[in-house]
Amino acid sequence: MQKRHRIQFPKKDMTSQGQDETYFYLQGSGEPRKIRFHDYNEIYQVPGLYEQIFYDRLKCTSPVKVTSILETAIMQSSENFSELRVLDLGAGNGMMGEELKKRGVSRLVGVDIIPEAYDATVRDRPGLYDAYHIQDFTSLDQEAKDEIISWDCNCMVTVAALGFGDIPVKAFIQAFNIISEEGWVAFNIKETFFDKTDVSGFSLMMRELIFSEYLDIYQIERYRHRFSIDGEPLFYFAIVGRKNADVTDEFLKSIDINLS
Question: Of the candidates 150, 161, 168, 170, which lies 20 to 30 Å from 202 by C-alpha distance?
Answer without folding.
Answer: 150
